[in-house]
Design goal:
Blueprint (H helix, E strand, L loop, with lengths): L15 H5 L7 E2 L12 H20 L8 H13 L9 E5 H13 L5 E6 L3 H9 L3 E8 L2 E2 L1 H11 L3 E4 L13 H13 L3 E5 L15 H5 L9 E6 L10 E5 L2 H14 L5 H13 L2 H27 L3 E3 L7 E6 L9 H10 L2 E2 L1 E2 L12 E5 L5 H14 L1
Parallel strand pairs: 1-12, 3-4, 3-6, 6-7, 7-8
Antiparallel strand pairs: 2-9, 4-5, 8-9, 10-11, 11-14, 13-14
């Protein structure tokens, strides 16, 4: 069949082959990007769904506005306020997961050949989505404090990108948290170079100790002229339920209007039933307890994984203990002649019945084959310890 030429730019995910092996019996997987289903507040969501149907079945089961179900937009506006962001319900649109917000940004902003700066490494689906629209992706390096703003500034000045895409808080896969100082630098650059900054923030609520610095969107409120250059994507996926498919985008009115138009042609609107359920859930006041629960459980797992990696792999691996999110991002050091290619290790690990994702596919440019991503989300502490011991053996 003759497919559209835009598909020529995109390979199916290199890690898909690996995922096929995850069904092997007895395997402990750190490969996925899923939250733990055992963490979903089923009772609260059931009650919310019932209330949505009892109170307004006509609204919850009918077609709805493309921008989103009004009661949910109000709840999301209130939710953002708890995170220091003042946004009118009309200043956000509800999207089918934040993934759709990324797609809408691609659709509205990227013409074939346009340059877009992303972090190296960054979210794989973003790389593929933006490439589908013909983006020429340029990769800005990341360290434990997030994207290196000095390097980012050089790249912006040189390439004059259409926009910059960042996951500043507990990035996938980097796990890194952009420091407050660098967040402020990003805002300065947005104004100085008149460049749109996309802040993808599905993990910001998932912190284990102290709260992270305010989002770039929140900080933009005190940097004159900067807010018009910020698009912010949020999601209920990682803290409440990815199956609900509730995300949102806050952006300048002009961009929001174009994105809404594109959404109309794509899915008309996000499931009204899911939106009404999410609205009821947020209104019920259960969210703070749910957040406290996921923070605690994932925090314990992250702790266990960090300790096990130290114990079992020692100086053969380097990493920064993540302060939130779902991922460890690590690098094989090759110390004492040990293996430094994560692709080879991934194969050996499968033979030892443990899985992770090699890091190379997460780079839009200059892949680092020594890197790997380990999720601590779905295995309990005991499984994490056993799995990392197996990884030690594989190495
Ligand atoms: N952005 C990032 C950085 C992610 O890791 C994910 C989920 N893996 C998404 C966006 C999309 O999430 P959702 O569509 O479920 O909101």
């Amino acid at each position: 069949m003759q497919f559209a030429s835009r598909l020529d730019n995109v390979e199916t995910s290199a890690i898909r082959e690996l995922f096929k092996l995850l069904g092997t019996p007895g395997i402990i997987s750190f490969a996925g990007g899923f939250p733990d289903s055992a963490m979903f507040d089923v009772k609260g969501l059931k009650e919310a769904a019932n209330r949505a149907l009892d109170q307004e079945a006509g609204g919850a089961l009918q077609y709805g506005a493309t921008e989103g179900y009004e009661p949910l937009r109000k709840q999301l506006s209130a939710f953002m306020k708890t995170k220091g962001v003042e946004v009118d319900p009309s200043g956000l649109i509800v999207t089918t997961g934040s993934q759709q917000a990324l797609d809408l940004l691609g659709k509205t902003m990227i013409s074939p050949g346009d340059k877009v700066i992303v972090e190296g490494p960054t979210f794989l689906a973003t790389i593929q989505c933006f490439r589908l629209y013909g983006a020429h992706l340029i990769s800005a390096p990341v360290d434990a404090n997030g994207v290196k703003t000095d390097e980012l500034e050089k790249l912006i000045a040189e390439h004059k990108p259409k926009f910059v895409y960042l996951i500043p808080t507990f990035g996938n896969p980097s796990g890194a948290m952009l420091s407050l100082e660098r967040r402020k630098k990003v805002l300065e650059m947005a104004v100085k170079y008149q460049t749109l900054i996309v802040e993808d923030d599905p993990y910001g609520d998932l912190y284990f100790g102290e709260a992270p610095p305010p989002s770039i969107l929140s900080l933009s409120q005190s940097v004159p002229g900067s807010r018009e250059f910020i698009a912010h994507c949020g999601s209920l996926s990682k803290v409440l339920s990815p199956g609900l498919r509730i995300g949102w985008m806050i952006a300048p009115a002009e961009l929001l209007a174009k994105a809404t138009m594109c959404k109309q042609f794509s899915d008309a609107h996000t499931s009204t039933f899911a939106q009404a359920t999410a609205a009821q859930y947020l209104q019920s006041g259960r969210m703070p307890a749910t957040l406290a629960h996921v923070r605690k459980v994932y925090g314990e797992r992250a702790q266990a994984m960090g300790a096990a990696l130290q114990r079992e792999l020692g100086d053969a691996i380097s990493f920064t203990q993540p302060a939130g999110g779902l991922f460890f991002w690590a690098r094989l050091t090759g110390a004492n002649g040990k293996l430094a290619d994560a692709n080879v290790l991934a194969q050996r690990a499968i033979a030892q019945l443990v899985a992770f994702v090699p890091g190379a596919p997460f780079f839009a440019e200059n892949p680092d084959v020594a890197t790997l991503r380990l999720s601590f989300a779905t295995a309990n502490v005991e499984k994490i310890e056993e799995g990392i011991a197996r990884l030690g053996k594989a190495l």
